[in-house]
Amino acid sequence: MPDQTAACLLTLDIEHKGDVAVVKCHGKLVSDVSAGLYARVSRLIPGSRRIVLDLSDLTHIDSMGLGTLVRLYVSSRSAGCSLELINLGKRVRELLGLTHLLSVFTVIGEHGGMIRL
């Protein structure tokens, strides 16, 4: 039963456009689901030039979620793939700013922005 609850915390929609993968995150990026996000997105790295994480529907992120974003950044960069963030909500933007991670990531749009592929 806990696995079903964890699965409901975060859902992902993945769209491929050539060598670009757009991953739209819905829900909460917390410790129960961060490993699942890493597993799914890291599988995209070998076949992608860019991975765009759309965080417009992300309602909450905890320290494990932040760690997962950093881990994905390091893995993608090591493989020559660009990891970019788009549509950061106010709370997510504030948290990334407080932890000095906002300057680490490439942020390509504001909330409601368009993705250029």
Q: What's the short version?
A:
By secondary structure, the protein is of the alpha/beta class. 38% of the residues lie in helices and 32% in strands. The mean pLDDT is 89.
What do these coordinates show?
The protein has 117 residues and is of the alpha/beta class. The protein has one domain (2-107): Transcription Regulator spoIIAA, CATH 3.30.750.24. Helices cover 38% and strands 32% of the residues. It has four helices and five strands.
The secondary structure category is: alpha/beta
CATH-wise, what's the superfamily? STAS domain
**Radius of gyration based on Cα positions:** 13 Å
How much of the sequence lies in strands comes to 25-35%
Q: Extract low-pLDDT stretches.
A: none
CATH T-level topology: Transcription Regulator spoIIAA
Write the H/E string, N to C.
HEEHEHEHE
Question: Judging from the principal axes of the Cα atoms, what is the shape?
Answer: globular
Features:
single chain; 117 residues; alpha/beta; Transcription Regulator spoIIAA; 4 helices; 5 strands; 32% strand; globular
Task: List the SSEs and their pairings.
Elements: H1 2-9, E1 10-17, E2 20-29, H2 31-42, E3 50-61, H3 63-78, E4 82-86, H4 90-98, E5 106-107
Helix pairs in contact: 2-3
